[in-house]
Amino acid sequence: MQKAKMMARAATVMCAGAMVAVGVAGPATAATTTGSAAKADTPTTAATDPVLSGDRWVTIVRVQSFESGVALPEDGFLREADDDSGRQLFVPKPLGGDEYLIKAYDDANDRPLCWQEYHPQTTASLRVEGASCNPRKPEQRFTITAVGDEEYAISNRSAYLQRASNGNLILEELGDAALDDTYRLVDNGPAPHSCH
Description:
Keywords: Signal. Residues 1-30 form the signal peptide. There is one protein chain. The protein is mainly β. It has one domain: Trefoil (Acidic Fibroblast Growth Factor, subunit A), CATH 2.80.10.50. The protein has one helix at residues 2-10, and strands at residues 11-15, 18-23, 56-62, 69-71, 79-81, 89-96, 99-105, 113-118, 127-131, 142-148, 151-156, 159-163, 169-173, 183-190. The radius of gyration is 16 Å and the shape is globular.
């Protein structure tokens, strides 16, 4: 998370092969939570939130976690990290309705990786991996829906991003189960135009 905070203040970011400087006047902030946010029975549209405009860097933090944020390692699956490893800056690009292509960036990489559902073809849980961006692939079209004040559910084809008992982030169909894990999208400043 420290790397994402430093980049948001004044860092050099490579996007689409162009070197671009990004700066923010002050520290990135997230709304503080003074208790559990009320959750709607049915998630509502999130399209009016500026962090979902496709123009903003965001870090993604699981509301139920303490200090870690979501990271996409170069050679692995989406996970939570409390260090500087992996890609921790994201640009959710609107695709229409509540669907987004979630682009993951790292300061040392000039091309984004996009979140993609990974199905292991076994009884193992669905996971999220990084892949070349292709908005036509259904496994890359994630739904982000508001479930509280600045709190979102993230899903892909009715499988929700949840933290498993072993600590992995997985995609899980809820059935009759409750939605246990929700996320805050923390604004880290404007994303360079080449990253949209």
